[in-house]
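Course assignment 3, question 2. Fill in each field.
Student: A.L.
Task: Predict the tertiary structure for the chain below.
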Amino acid sequence: GLKAAVLLGLLFYGGQKLMRWWLTLVARRKSDELFMLNLLLVTLGLAWMTEHAGLSLALGAFVAGMLIAETEYKHQVETDIRPFHDVLLGLFFITIGMKLDWRPLVDHWWLVILLTALPVLAKFALIAGLARMFRSPPGVALRTGLYLAQAGEFGFVLLTLGEQHRLIDPQWVSPVLASMVLSMLVTPFIIMYSNRIVMKLSSSDWLMQSVALTSIAKKSIKTEAHVIICGYGRSGQNLARLLEGEAIPYMALDLDPDRVRQAAAAGQSVVFGDAAKVQSLMAAGLARAAAVVVSYHDTPSALKILNLVQTHAPRVPVVVRTIDDTDLEKLRAAGATEVVPEAIEGSLMLASHALALVGVPVRRVIRITRDARDKRYGLLRGYFHGADDDTVDELDQARLSSVTLPTASQHAGKPLDDLALHALGVAVVSLRRASGKGLLADGATLAGGDTLVISGRPQALALAEEKLLG
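Answer field:
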């Protein structure tokens, strides 16, 4: 016992510094294979040390994971071990399921429920109490307790060791094992309803959320026709600067408190809020907004935002940023007006610089990249005509026009292709239902109230509008 206590004390006292020094030394070799081998060496080495100190192999591996998680290499480690993690985690739960004997559970179901409820409640109370001791707000403390109340994977290891050393009677193993599995199964539902639970347990949490939403609404209440920027990272900040240059109001929502504090101190219109929650979007003035821009690449979160916009302000266009075009169709089907993949934009910039460097005239380079963008982004084909676009050079240029079909349109129920607008020299850029839902123009069937964005020269657009509205 003394040897084990000394070993763990040394590992927790000086292990973090030693681990950071060692991983830095290995990382400087810039070899992925060497980095992975050293991770295995550290894990197996600590497992061997704890076993020789009278503890379990699993505890040594657990300590190794804790020490690595305290270094700046934890994200790289998570990426490297992801394949092993997925395979071994599945194998781990398969072995747990194979050890589970269902016959005693049917006979003692009340005991399983009791063993599930009592530890979960006790762990919830303990974690929430500790969080409050460290001065966390009541709502944060309660949510932390709810999120961590279930049995952990290491509990299975302890149960196995207890059985091997005859510390637990064999007849208790199956009920305890089943209760641990059951607590994990109910955890997603606890998390799903955690907000309602916390609201009932803590009135101050509701007040704090109300104050946060009030601060958002206070900044946006006098703003109209503004752009809501979801995420205030580098892309969001660059967009905000361009909007400021054109005197276009904006409201940015971000979940990084340090970034929000610094940007707000600099006079920028950014507040702390989750753009994937309807309360934050409505407080930011969604109903009065001119557009919504999702500036971070997180497809599940973007889909939530698109669903909220379609539900509460279907006529507000949404532009979504992604890494590539993998989820392009999914985002468009969810209502995205335009999707901007970084990979495509990056390739266009690389191509334009390469062409310029090998001697292609700059005007030709600009035309090539513009044509490539026109094929990729429907909304960049032309522009909407305004009162200041009547110069001689612009009168015959392609432009955009929006046409909304009457509710009782004679074209309702007919395929868009039957109108043969391409024969007039007009292309359909986008199609949006009266509900605000965007559709792919190819093969679409028209309905009353549809809004079509068409592109072409002025004379062709006039003929197309006459045909659509006639």
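Instructor remarks: Residues 427 and 455 are 5 Å apart (CA to CA). The two ends are 91 Å apart (CA to CA).
Grade: pending
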